Amino acid sequence: MISTLGVVGAGVMGRGVAQAAAQKGMRVVLLDLSDEVLESAENEIRQELRFAAMLSKGAEAHSVDEVCQRIEFTTDLSRLAQVDFLVENVSEKVAIKQALYPQLDSLCKSDCVFAVNTSAISITRVASWTQRPDKIVGMHFMNPVPMKPLVEVIRAHHSSEATIATAKQFLAQLGKEAVVVNDMPGFVSNRILMLTVNEAVFVVQDQVSTARDVDRIFKGCFGHKMGPLETADLIGLDTILFSLEVLYESYNDPKFRPAPLLRKMVDAGLHGRKSGQGFFKYPNLHQTVKKRGSSESTQ
Asked: What is the pTM of this model?
């Protein structure tokens, strides 16, 4: 059983993983570069726990304080030295990850498994930056992490059966099911989803339809809880752009070329829910949390 979890990166996904683990009784070391980011993460976790308690969706029989006391918020990398399992959630930029993994490799216990929470970057490539390639696995969580019952687990070239088993055990402790896929950039979910989102942006760019009507068609005709552009706003348009760039570079296939409108919106700071505006406006970011149980989709 995994008792102590390390989580690197206290953004939306990192704090979601930390919250989910703490709710299940694990001790969590949540690491980020700044106290400001960590303070924001703690506030967001507390807010999420209060909403979960009010809505009775996935709420644990523990107080907000009790859950948060299981999470150590720190900027000290050395605090990861004794964790049993580690989930990395830093930016989807290869240079940042490549600088981080040798540090984690030299610091963490030799039997600690590293789970790379990425939507597009090759897990085999990440494993090559360590001396423990057999203990590296991909783990693509969906947003919001505490509410999503399934996780895409990616088997890298050197991932051992023991590592896959440990990853499944960790997810079982979180009350989540693992679906194991093989390592190619984008895996299953984002290799398909990013094409759908990107083409939806092209449709809006070409003035075939409005963003609202694109999403109405997907919800009304196909029964999707969210349309592709609402999903893009949830994920973050900057993250969508990063993912498409990685897929384009990895496959050298023009089908992954980012829509010019997407790049323009990212340059303008219209990143979706986290910035208050993307394809839709979000005047009260905290208020949108209440809708997550019925409307939100993938990372």
From this structure: 0.84
